[in-house]
Design brief:
The chain is of the alpha/beta class. Helices cover 32% and strands 18% of the residues. The longest helix has 17 residues, at 296-312.
Length: 348
């Protein structure tokens, strides 16, 4: 398949927006930027188009998709009921990096939800995504635009690496803002439950709707527990090298990473560190700054790029500093632990 790339300077670029919207309406696969990561979009009600998403990504067909919308009115067609806490979340956090799980209506096809009775809906906040969704005026399913299992794409370069020749159109809108995917919140249960931590923190949610539970597989301690969000059970975000996450006090972490770098012999070794700790490391082949420990939004913005950078440089072993399990730290650690396939060194 021939893939066209359109670089867009702003959401006011009417010609590019119209081309993307038309392509979606005619059943094509269109990659566009959202405020979290790039999405691989298709008309949610076109079975052939949706099937193309699974093929392009190599995505298991039992992993349901998120339906993206531009107006709140569109929710009414897609769900059987909007619980009050769901409505509160829509009012406060939409548009934005929060996906809500509702009981679905008859309209939502099985091939979108993988046969579940629920549907995931999100209203993205990126001006380009909003304009495309408004102009197309159809519900659009859009998983992250990476090959299944790879780190999610936060730049058009990442998208091109994974998706060239597999989709019809790529809209290049620069680096995405948040950098990790939306938080997935199930509002069919009370208290609502976070199935995937992301751009909106548990603390943000609790300030509006009170206590919120977290699926216990978000920070896996026991791999026999099955996640409630199908996508969470797959190996994810994996760089090609072997990755390890280190948790504990920062001096302990740096000491242990340096010791392991020395022991790694001729293997090409990367360290993913932070602004505050960069100076502590010696002897590695690649040192990447994920951002400041005082600004975890910056770290979230950078982590997928940092993981892909290790692949670009052919790194065989990757040592990654961990973060405290609060606020955005939970979302970041969820991605890092998956990138490391659960290989975490605790108690430093
Ligand atoms: O930020 C995002 O959410 C991005 C951008 C492109 O919008 N999209 C994204 O989609 O991350 P995807 O397909 O990569 O991840 C969707 C996640 C998966 O873990 C999936 O299992 C879960 O949402 N999900 C979708 N529908 C669900 C449902 N009905 N019940 C539980 N989990 C669901
Ligand atoms: Mg994904």
């Amino acid at each position: 398949m021939e893939t066209k790339i359109l670089t867009i300077q702003s959401a006011e670029d009417g010609a590019a927006i119209a081309e993307a919207a038309e392509a979606l309406k005619s059943g094509k696969l269109v990659i566009f930027p959202t405020e979290t990561v790039y999405g691989l979009g298709a008309d949610a009600l076109n079975e052939t188009a949706v099937d193309g998403i699974f093929t392009a990504k190599g995505r298991p067909r039992d992993n349901p998709l998120i339906v993206h919308i531009a107006h709140e009115d569109q929710v009414l067609d897609l769900v059987s009921v909007i619980p009050p806490k769901g409505k509160d979340c829509m009012d406060i956090f939409w548009p934005g990096p929060l996906t809500l799980i509702f009981n679905r209506s008859e309209l939502v096809p099985n091939y979108v939800t993988a046969g579940l009775d629920s549907v995931a809906i999100r209203m993205p906040d990126h001006p380009v995504a909003r304009s495309i969704l408004q102009e197309a005026n159809i519900p659009v399913v859009a998983p992250s635009a990476n090959t299944s299992g790879r780190p999610s794409p936060t730049t058009a370069d990442h998208v091109v690496e994974d998706m060239m020749g597999k989709v019809d159109l790529i809209i290049d809108g620069g680096h995405t803002g948040v950098g990790i995917e939306s938080t997935v919140l199930d509002v069919t249960v009370d208290p609502p439950m976070i199935l995937r931590p992301g751009g909106i923190t548990r603390e943000d949610l609790e300030a509006i709707i009170g206590p919120v539970d977290m699926d216990e597989t978000i920070l896996p301690s026991d791999s026999s527990i099955i996640p409630k969000s199908p996508g969470q059970k797959y190996k994810h975000y994996a760089p090609r090298g072997e990755a390890y996450v280190f948790a504990g006090n920062i001096i302990g972490i740096a000491g242990e990473i340096n010791r392991r770098v020395r022991e790694s012999g001729s293997k090409k070794t990367a360290v993913l560190a932070t602004t505050e700790t960069l100076e502590l490391y010696r002897g590695m082949d690649l040192l990447v700054n994920m951002g400041s420990r005082d600004n975890l939004k910056e770290v979230a913005h950078n982590i997928f790029d940092a993981l892909r950078c290790c692949d670009d440089e052919g790194m065989e072993v990757i040592f990654i500093e961990g973060f405290e399990l609060e606020g955005m730290g939970v979302s970041i650690m969820n991605r890092l632990l998956k990138a490391a396939g659960g290989k975490v060194i605790l108690g430093l």
